Amino acid sequence: MESRSPRTSPWRRFLAATLACTALLASTGGCAQEKDDRPPGCRHVSEKLEPACGAWLGIWPRTRADGTMSVDLGANLASLEERLGRRIDLVSRYYGWGQEFPDAWDRQWRDGNRILLIDLRARNFSTNTYVSWRSIADGEHDEYLARLGARMRDFGAPVFFSFNQEPEQELEKGTRVAGTAADFAAAYRHVREVFARAGARNVVWVWWIMGYLGHTGWYHALYPGDRYVDWISYDPYDFNSCKGGGHETPEQSVMPFLTWLTASGIGSGKPVMLSEFGSNGTDRHDWYAGLGDVVKKAPRIKAIVSFNSNPGGCDTRVTNSESNWRGFAGLAADPYFRQRG
């Protein structure tokens, strides 16, 4: 009997699921039967999860379809997908230091032919205490990281992974909080190395930053290096009144940092993800509809993820009004943002 290498099985599983997923099982988060209207040349996704054409569409499922905030993420996603009439291909998760993942929701969504975007922050969400990036880089937490690496390996499917998204949040508070930009880059590299030793070859590594032009002085030092990063990711928002400013167009929110990134040479040629996007307010149909047009003009952008939440102050829920929902639903209906048929 021909032997199979466990190193390649996640990708075989991914390809098989993409081709064979045909039935929606609402109780288990199964796959929706949907017409594949993509051109034949656009039905390929690389081992680094880069689609040949178009872009992934994802969401942070923090609300139900009626806009109600809920911690029942599984029910939230099912509600959102039922209202949309399609599966959402990419789902984001935020984990704090000390938590174990993937969890039951992650496995359910994997089995429903979705891709996970998982972030691990160097902060305990329960105690709001930070773990220093230098202590991570120096190997003081390898037992925990090795356990996570093994769990990610055993997840058995390709998964996007980010270490400590938006590290600028810590740097804005000062280097005593978690460390310096160089400490972050060293910690990122070390986490990847520990995961590699655990055999987590199914992990696709995302460098996830704010993408704020006021912080460009940090980005070269924050970047772990091309060997350690598969995707570049940043978070374009139209905060408008919640940050005391005026409304931005999608182009004004997205393009200035992408232009800077390209000129900087950081991650040259790597695919780009908009790992959080949103516009504050309840009359934002045109912003969400226009976002699709901007992304289509920037073919380096290969994934976009709605930050469907209202953590306080800035409300970027696509579910908070009929106007916002129609804009997001228009994105979801566009074949450009459908990678799973």
TrEMBL record:
Domain GH26: 40-341
Hydrolase found in the keyword field: yes
InterPro entries assigned to the protein according to its UniProt record, in alphabetical order: GH, GH26_dom
PROSITE patterns recorded: GH26, PROKAR_LIPOPROTEIN
GO MF terms, alphabetically ordered: hydrolase activity, hydrolyzing O-glycosyl compounds
Signal sequence coordinates: 1-32
Keywords per UniProt: Glycosidase, Hydrolase, Signal
Residues the record marks as active site: E166 (proton donor), E276 (nucleophile)
Family the entry assigns: Belongs to the glycosyl hydrolase 26 family.
Name this polypeptide is given: GH26 domain-containing protein
Organism annotation: Micromonospora pattaloongensis
